[in-house]
Amino acid sequence: MHRNKTAYLIAVVFVAGLVGTGCSSTEPVTEIRQPQQDMSDREALFWSNRESSRTNYTEADVDFMTKMIAHHAQALVMSALARGSAHQHSGRQQAADMPGMLSWEQLEELAASKGSDFDRSYLTFMIQHHEGAVIMVQELFSTNGAALDVEIFQLASEINAEQITEIERMKQMLETMSHK
Fold first, then answer.
1. Domain residue spans in the chain?
2. Is the pTM higher than 0.70?
3. 135, 79, 67: which is closest to 107 by C-alpha?
4. Beta bridge partners of 28
5. Which helix (H) or strand (E) segment is 138 a member of?
6. CATH of 2-178, one of 3.40.1000, 3.20.20, 3.10.450, 1.20.1260
7. Which of 61, 59, 63 is nearest to 30 (CA)?
8. 81 with 122: CB under 8 angstroms?
9. pLDDT, tens only, 155-167
């Protein structure tokens, strides 16, 4: 059982480490392929259909989605700690370029805390984490040409609304805990 937890955390940290190479352009991601002038009508139709079927994701859209995967992976690690199912970490996440990500020291603090101290730390750190997701959405929406694709826009909008709602709910939980 411990082996599976360690393998899971290694996988999460590995995926999170892969996102350290973000993109910054807002140009649509497309393959450069110019059809030749002397191609057959069938070949021209193929390239025309291929070009028209492309999605218009920008590099900012891809960067947002890639970083959101790693961002969410850390939330899964935090939630595993909340369930008491992960007590050791096998690596460090490359999170310096993502807002709201907990430092290694914060993750260790969370893992070491118990009882109501854990509950307060978990909520405090998860608020920080969710605020980072909101910042990531704001950065996406403020990038010229980004989030024009309906699916990207819808996902980012849902993330924004859900994270803001969760932040308020967790702040209320912290307030309730401080009165006990």
1. 2-178
2. no
3. 79
4. 58
5. helix 115-141
6. 1.20.1260
7. 59
8. yes
9. 999 999 999 999 9
